[in-house]
């Protein structure tokens, strides 16, 4: 499993900060707000509530896809377009296991290494 997918590019982005409630900005506009966040050493990720944009679905975005965090403006920037996020694997908190994590790793690896 690729460590770059599940780690922030800059450790200061998540250090001593709770990102829940921050807006998430894709390369082509806002996609929603962070509903959950993990800073575990084994995997850092965000769960974004997309609201009406994709019919209330939540999307898990690994920390490796984050390219910037503005703590003053409460904004997280990712290097994904809205369509790329919409096409990402579905996230189900009750079904989060090695298999579903593997699907997310496979999907997001190209975006975490840019």
Automatic annotation (TrEMBL):
Residues 16-84 form the PRC-barrel domain. InterPro entries: Bac_photo_RC_H_C, PRC-brl_dom, PRC_barrel-like_sf. It holds the Pfam family PRC. Residues 87-114 are annotated as: Disordered. Transmembrane segments: none annotated. This is PRC-barrel domain-containing protein.
